[in-house]
Structures are given as structure tokens and as C-alpha cells.
Amino acid sequence: MSTGLVWFRNDLRVKDQESLALATNSHKNVIGVYCFDPRQFKLNKFGFKKTEKYRAKFLIETVEDLKSTLEKYTIPLFVYLGKPEDYIPKLLVVHKISHIYFQDEWTKEERVVEEALKEATKTNKVNFVKAYSQFLFSPNLMPFQFSETPKVFTVFRKWIEKEVQPRSLVIIKQNFEQKKIDNPTTIPSIKDLGFENFSTPVHTAFPFRGGEANALEHLTNYFWKTEQVSYYKKTRNGLLGTKYSSKLSAWLANGSISANTIYNQLKKYEQQVTKNESTYWLFFELLWRDYFKYISLRYGDAIFKQKGIKNSVYNWQNNSELVEQWITGTTQSNFVNANMIELQQTGWMSNRGRQNVASYFAKNLQLDWRIGAAYFESLLIDYDVHSNYGNWCYVAGVGNDPRDRTFNVDLQAKRYDPNAKYQKLWLQPKLF
Ligand SMILES: Cc1cc2nc3c(=O)[nH]c(=O)nc-3n(C[C@H](O)[C@H](O)[C@H](O)COP(=O)(O)OP(=O)(O)OC[C@H]3O[C@@H](n4cnc5c(N)ncnc54)[C@H](O)[C@@H]3O)c2cc1C
What we know:
globular, binds flavin-adenine dinucleotide, Serine Threonine Protein Phosphatase 5, Tetratricopeptide repeat
């Protein structure tokens, strides 16, 4: 029987992994591959590294965990620091691969990689099998075409709530076992990716490590051990500490946990502990996550363009001094500054913070929103192409916010940081 290859991308898990489940059910032999793609560590057109050290470290931890979990199923994970189109063709020959299973990614850079891989393997007679496993509500279940994705979130939400159920969880074939396959590859270190070792401040709001095991442990803590999810709606606009929101985004972004697994636990929690506004609201936010994926499916590369999906023209500035002030946390607003310093020192920022600093960048400073989005892409530990560019378009007024609001950062600071505790935490050496 031929061998199946799972090409891991942003689906770095074993639980509820559609490609892996399909491969183990269809082949006696299965291997996995993950490529740390050097293109992801280059400078982007605005001069920021596409991936900064925080996400790089989290990714290494994630791949280490994936490799050791797969070994329990006798599946080797081949890991390379190089382009998939340079390494996968060699694996196809050595391991007599007939099928490549992978998560479908449709944004520009990801499409380029897939096309390059197809080109490099065109003489190999290999079948490509794609899955949309990053969604809670997969496009296969949807009652509409991508072109019909509603322009407003509420319409989308009501549609889903009325008509669609998430798919069932999928599992790797039970008792999957194969003869040991030699795997001489090793996982690159942080230095191999071009960074020095570092540590984050002890008061970081995101002190967590990457990997599926940590994601599942965190989920258990947030739901079952601390029952914090029961208070999510009250705490979600917080700025301080590890518990104000679920903090699941970084694991969701690289796929070390699936939205489906979270939903499944949420439903169990609602049956066994409590069902309230907070448990609903976590579901509501997961729907936003799906919604931005549908927006990028509908509008394609428009989410990266200055005019956005609305095709709106504004008088965007490109003032490098103002950009620098924003990045280094030296603007006129201490609230903005504290958030930007937190991001720079930890790779994390709360949702409330992100909304404020993005609005300040695009609406107050009137700077080209794509620069801010590219900086977020570089720094955020939970960077997700759809959520990042979708939210930036939304806040900058070129997306799908019907109200096109500007945040008053002073009022927001008074409301969400009344005693300036958060600002003091990150600005202390400068101000106090
Ligand atoms: C300018 C800007 C840029 C952003 N960039 C990203 C990004 O690159 N990656 C990312 O995951 N989120 C992004 N967000 C959305 C949001 O800020 C984060 O998902 C959230 O802060 C993560 O924290 P949490 O996991 O504790 O979220 P919770 O509040 O616990 O929410 C649970 C989950 O719902 C999803 N979610 C929540 N809010 C949003 C939202 N507004 N849009 C999409 N999904 C949401 C996330 O997957 C999150 O993990 C951005 C928001 C803004 C305003």
C-alpha cells in the first residue's frame, strides 16, 4: 500500500486533525513534514521581520510537541529549515508517496507556496488532498457561496446560528502503527532562525508555551479547573494578568488546537457546569474568527490593499517619525504607549489594547494602516492572517464596520484602566 504524507501548515496538532485522520485511515504508512520556511523570517516591504522572536519561539515549541506526540503513533515528523517545494519532492521519492494531505490556505503567500510545491512535484504523479480544518463552521457546511458572505457580521452570525452545526471531531485511526521509519531531521533552534535566546518579563499576560499539550492543558484550566469561562463576558476587556480572556488565540493561530475542540468542551461545560452570557460570548468571538476567514475568502487580496474591502480612499500618511513613536511607545497617549511597550516586550496585547492602538494609528495619526498591520504581523505571538488584516481593515475604516468608529483613547484609558495600573506596569521606568 502506498504511503501518505501529511504536510503540516497551520494545523500543528494531532487531535481533530482532518488531514492526519484522512491519511491514517487511507494508508498503512504515513509520514509528516513541517518546513520552517525562510520566507517567513525575511523583512517585509515595510522593513519588519515577517516573524519576530516571540512567534518563532512559540512555533519551535509547537513543532517539538507535535513531533513527540506523532512518535507515539509511530509517525515520523520530518522537519526542515527550508522551502516545502525544495524538500517535499525528495520525500516523495524516498518514501513512495502517493497522496499529500494538507490544510487549504488561500491567502496570497500561502497560495504561492502551494503552487510552487505543485510545480516542483508535477512529475511525481501525486494526489493533493485538502481540508479546511481551521474553521469552526467549515465552508463545506455553509448554506452560501463565498461570494455571498454577508458584509455585516450580525447577518453572518444569525445565518449560522439558525442553519449550521459544526462538524464532528475527527480522530486519528485507532491503533495506527507502522514499522519504524528512519528520520534524521532535527528541529531548528531559535538561533538557527536568526534570533538570540531571550526571556519575557515575569509580568507578561501571556506566559504560556507553544504546543498541543499546553493548549489542551490551558483549555482544561480555563474551563474546568478555574471555571473562568463562566465570567468571560465580564472580564474580557481586561488588560492585566493571565485570566481576563481565554488566551487561546496563539494556539488557535498555528492550529495546535482546533476551534472545534474548544466548541466541543464549551458545549460540555454548558451541560455540566453552567450556560450563561459568558459561555455564549466565547462562542460569539469564535464566530468572529470564522467570519474574518470568510471575508478573506470573499474579498481575496483586497484585505491587504490600502483601500481594503470597501475600496475607500483616505489621505493616508507615511510619516516614519510618527510610526517610530507608535512602535516605541512614545506617542502623546500613555495608554497607547503602554500597550505598544507590552507588545514589544512580550509579543502579546489584549483585544482592548489592539483596538485602541490600531484606531490611534489609522484614525488619529492617519498613518497608512498597512504599516501598523505589518508591525502586528511581525510581533504578535498569535498572528493570524485573516484576523489581523480583517481587524485592521475594520478599525481603519476600510473593512466591514458599518459604523466606522474612532476610539477616544483617553476615555478608553479612564474606563478600562481607571487607576492607571496597567499603564504603570509597562511605563514605570519612564514615568514613575
Ligand atoms: C487590530 C487587531 C489585530 C488583531 N490581530 C489578531 C491576530 O493576528 N490574531 C488573532 O488571533 N486575533 C487578532 N485580533 C483579534 C483579538 O484581539 C484576539 O483574537 C484576542 O485578543 C486574543 O485573545 P484571546 O485568545 O484571549 O481572545 P478571547 O477574547 O478569549 O476570544 C476567544 C477567541 O475568539 C477569537 N477572537 C476574539 N476576538 C476576535 C476578533 N476581534 N477577531 C477575530 N477573532 C477573534 C480568537 O480566536 C480568540 O482566541 C486582532 C484584533 C485587532 C483589533
